[in-house]
Predict the structure.
Amino acid sequence: YPNCGGRIMSFIGGACSQGPGQVVDDELKHPIRSHHDIEKDNAKWMKKATKYYETLAKRAADNGHAIDMYSCALDQTGLMEMKSCPNMTGGNMVMGDSFNSALFKQTFQRVFSKDPKGEFKMAFNATLEVKCSRELKISGAIGPCITGGKKDGSISEVEIGIGNTTSWKFCALNPSSTVATFFEVTNQHGAPIPQGGRGCIQFITSYQHASGQRRVRVTTVARNWADPATALPHIAASFDQEAAAVLMARMAAWRADSTDEGADVLRWVDRMLIRLCQKFGEYVKDSPVSFRLPENFSLYPQFMFHLRRSQFLQVFNNSPDETTFYRGCLNREDLTNCLIMVQPILYSYSLQLPPEPVLLDTSSIQPDRILLMDTFFQILIFHGETIAQWRAAGYQTQPEYANLKQLLEMPVADAQDALLGRFPVPRYIDTEQGGSQARFLLCKVNPSQTHNN
């Protein structure tokens, strides 16, 4: 059915051990490949299987069909080799422990959630076309799409992500699908960029709605040109640190996935941060304490700090399948969700103060506080030592400690709110100081109290 919207849903309960897509053999003594094997070039089926699945994904994408991968098993299922199927067709990628778990069932029900009109919240067979004024060139896009193969004079020689085209094809979209597009500013034939003029970019998205209608949505943005030599403060004032952090995260994950070694990507992230600070920071030479960044740049370095430590760039303690799943989510979600993945949100609840966001730092872990951490993939409630003892003693059941009962209920209610709209449904963890699952919090916070440089 070429060019008809459609979804292929594959439920994967184990790794493929036969045929052209084989990723492991039948011998149980041979485990499936790890990051270590891939580094040592020891994963003998990886290249052949990846190539096979890429051909499959291209066939499906050309026909306009999305491939969803629901992988539930205690060991890896070869999601890394199969990643091109959901990533090139815009299908869902979900990873869990068991198809029987409540977590998977809730996630799968959300695939079929409907809008107020009773239509599925999905769009099919979409294309995104980008047009821009002549001073701009299109470098590429990073998202769950495939090249539309449309060429014209506005294509940049610098390729970022899926480049060499001005249109991309998404076989499926949902309300939060977000693509990152990258541009280059070029002066054609030495002609200066018109000062006071405007650069325009137009995004034309056409898709088949769940009701069967064909819809076109056009977004046009115009921005003033500014000369970096004379109008640097104007450029600095329009810097969006959150969008910049997510774009950098997508570029870094793309590089780690496709070309560079992990260490090279980290060095690249560092270099780009140093360049930005040189350009926009104010400092007295040889005096580190004098360094200042403008207000709207102030959070950017900490985003980069957490990006360096995140599971997108650090493969330690993650299997290749998990790394693929995390990077796949980063390339699909909207800005807020991607930012939560890079730098999780931490809220603190105490008897004295109203709930407040706190620093993702070990100093935020206090005995008389409850912490709520949202990493997008997990939602964790952490009870400080004193509160955990009170809870174990059952004080919250006594009427005179109604305020403690209320305190214990607040983070749970907020966690439920966060769980509502999220896809895939995050893992919900309830733990306390010294509990085994406190490790999920400790691996994310900045260890400032034990490691001071």
Observations:
- The chain has a mean pLDDT of 94.
- The first helix runs from residue 35 to 39.
